Amino acid sequence: MNTRLVIIIISFLLSINTYSNNSCGGKDSIAYFNKDFTHNFILHVDSMINNMYSTSLFVKPLTIKNKYGFSKDSIPVYADIIHEYRMAKLDTKTPIKLEYNSNVKSQIDLYTIRQRSYYQKVLGRAEYYFPIFEEALDRHDLPLELKYLAVVESGLNPNARSKSGALGLWQFMYNTGTIFGLRSTSFIDERKNPIKSTDAACKYLKYLHTTFNDWQLALAAYNGGPGVVRNAIERSGGKTTFWEIRPFLPKETQNYVPAFMAVNYVFAYQAEHNAIINDYGYKSIDNDTILITKPIYLSKISEISNVPLKTLKELNPMFKKGYIPAIEDTFVLIIPRKKVLEFIQNKDKAAISTYNSSSYKDLPSANEVKKDRIKITHTVRKGEYFHKLAVQYNCTMENIKTWNNLDSNNIHSNQKLDIWIENSINTNLVTKAQ
Predict the structure, then answer these.
(1) pLDDT digits over 359-415, tens only?
(2) Helix ranges (DSSP H) in 213-269
(3) Using CA atoms, how far apart are residues 132 and 199, in angstroms rounded to an integer?
(4) Phi and psi for 247 in degrees, rounded to 5?
(5) How confident is the model over 424-431, as a mean pLDDT?
(6) Which distant-in-sequence residues (6+ apart) come within 8 Å of 226 by Cβ?
(7) Largest Cα–Cα separation, the chain
(8) What would the pLDDT profile of 257-306 be if each residue is shown by its tens digit?
C-alpha cells in the first residue's frame, strides 16, 4: 500500500466526518453510521500505515529490526486523524481525560521529532522508576497514568533542579517538600529519594484532586500551585475546565497539561514512533535495601560490598555529600541485590565515620560531573579566570582543567574551553515547546 493511497483514504474519512458534523438532521442514523465506520476504518489504516514502512520499496535497508521493521534512523510522522484515534483509545483506559489538539500535537512532536534522543533516554530510565511509581500509586488508589507526570517534571532525573529551586523526580520546592514530610539537611535531601518523594507526590496529587475534583485542574495545580488555578477560574468568570481557564494561566502551566497528555501518548506508541530505548543500566527488581544504623561514607560501603561508588551514588541520590549521617537516625540504602550478603558479612569492618569537611576524596570527578549535562564551547573574555568560570557553570576549577587537558592555572582572552553545563531540558521539558 503506497503513501498516496493512504492520503486518499484519510482525506475520504475526513470528508465523511465533515458531512456527519454538518448533517441538518442532527444526530441521525447516517451521522452515527459514518462515525462508527470512520473509527473502525481508522484502526485498519493505523495498522496499514505501520505495515507500509516495513514493506515499501522506498525504505532504506534495515539496520535494526523492530515491531514494524523501521530502519534505525527512520522518524515516522502520522496524520492528525491517526493521533486523534490513538489518543481516544488511551482516554478509555484512564479516569484522567486525555485529548488531542494542536497544543498536544506540539508536545508529541517535541518528544518524537525535535528532542528524539532525549525521549529515548527517558524511556530507558522509565524501566527503573516506573515500577516504583506504580506501586505507590496503586497503594494510594490513584490512576497509574500519573507516573507520566514525573517525565514532564524531571525527565526521570532525581538530580534535576529547576531555576526556581524545585528538586527531584517530582520537583518539590523546599517548603512544599517539608509539608509532605521530605527532610532536607546539609547531608540529605529526601526530595531526591525515589521512594519517599513518590509517596509525597501521591499525597499531594490526592489533595489537589480532592480540592478541584478534576484531574486536569489537579495537574495544572501541581505545576502552578492551587492558588494559580483558583485565580484563573475567577478571572475566567467561573469556568471550571482546564481548556476554558488555560488562557488565564501562566505560560508554563498552559503547556503542562498538554505535555502530560503527550507523554501518555509517546510512551504508549513508542514502537509506532520507532523509539529505541536507551538502556539506563538499572532495574528496580535487581535491587534490595539495607538498613544503615551508624554514620558511614558511601565510599566505605563500596569498599566492603564491592559495589562501584558510582552505582551507590546513582541509586541513592539523596545523600548529598556521599555520606550517611546515621547518628540519631537510621537510613535505608539501596544496593544491588546480589551484593547484600557481601555487605552483611563485612559490615563489622566499617568503623564509625565522622564527616571530614576538608576532604576532597568524595568530590565528583570531571567525568561524573558530565552526567546529564551538555557540552558547550566557552570563549574566554578579558578578566575571566578559572574560579569565576567554575562558579558560573557550577563545577570546579579542576573539572575545567581536566576537560581541556590543561596543567596551568592560567587562561587567556579568546581561549576556547570545553565546558559541560547543566542541561535545562532535564528540569523542564515543557518550556521547550513554548
Answers:
(1) 555 567 777 778 778 889 999 999 898 888 988 888 888 889 999 999 888 899 999
(2) 215-224, 226-235, 242-245, 251-268
(3) 10
(4) -60, -20
(5) 42
(6) 208, 211, 212
(7) 84
(8) 999 999 999 999 999 999 988 888 888 889 999 999 889 999 999 999 99
For 258, phi then psi, to 5°, come to -55, -35
Residues 6+ apart with CB under 8 A from 50: 67, 68, 76, 272
d(CA 140, CA 236): 33
Contact 107, 262 (CB under 8 A): yes
Provide the 3-class DSSP secondary structure of residue 375.
Answer: strand
- DSSP-assigned letters across all residues of 277-316: PPP-S--GGGEEEEEE-S-EEHHHHHHHHT--HHHHHHH-
DSSP states of 322-334: SEE--SSS-EEEE
Q: Where are the domains of the chain?
A: 1-65, 112-268, 284-349, 366-433
CA–CA dist 180, 197 (Å, integer):
9
Radius of gyration of the chain (CA): 26
Query: Is pLDDT of 32 > 60?
Result: no
Contact 70, 53 (CB under 8 A): yes
Question: 3-state DSSP helix/strand/coil percent for the chain, to nearest 5?
Answer: 55, 10, 35
Query: Which region among 73-82, 201-210, 287-296, 343-352 has the lowest average model confidence (pLDDT)?
Result: 343-352
For residue 54, which of 355, 271, 318 has the smallest C-alpha distance? Answer: 271
Distance CA 159, CA 128 (A): 15
Q: What is the pLDDT of residues 78-101, one digit of tens each?
A: 999 999 999 999 999 999 999 999
Q: Considering the domain 366-433 in this protein, what is its CATH number?
A: 3.10.350.10
Please state, in angstroms and rounded to a whole number, the distance separating the CA atoms of residues 322 and 301.
Answer: 10
Q: Which long-range contacts (CB under 8 A, 24 or more apart) does 178-184 make?
A: 180/204
CATH architecture observed for domain 112-268: Orthogonal Bundle (1.10)
Tell me whether strands 331-336 and 323-324 are parallel, antiparallel or unpaired.
unpaired
H-helix or E-strand spanning residue 336: strand 331-336
- Angle between helical axes of 116-139 and 194-212 (0-180°, round to 10): 80
Dihedral pair phi/psi, residue 378, rounded to 5°? -100, 130
Buried b / exposed e across 136-153, counting CB within 10 Å, b at 16+?
Answer: bbeeeebbebbbbbbbbb
Contact 198, 182 (CB under 8 A): no
Arithmetic mean of pLDDT, 345-355:
72
Pairing between β-strand 416-422 and β-strand 323-324 as defined by DSSP bridges: unpaired
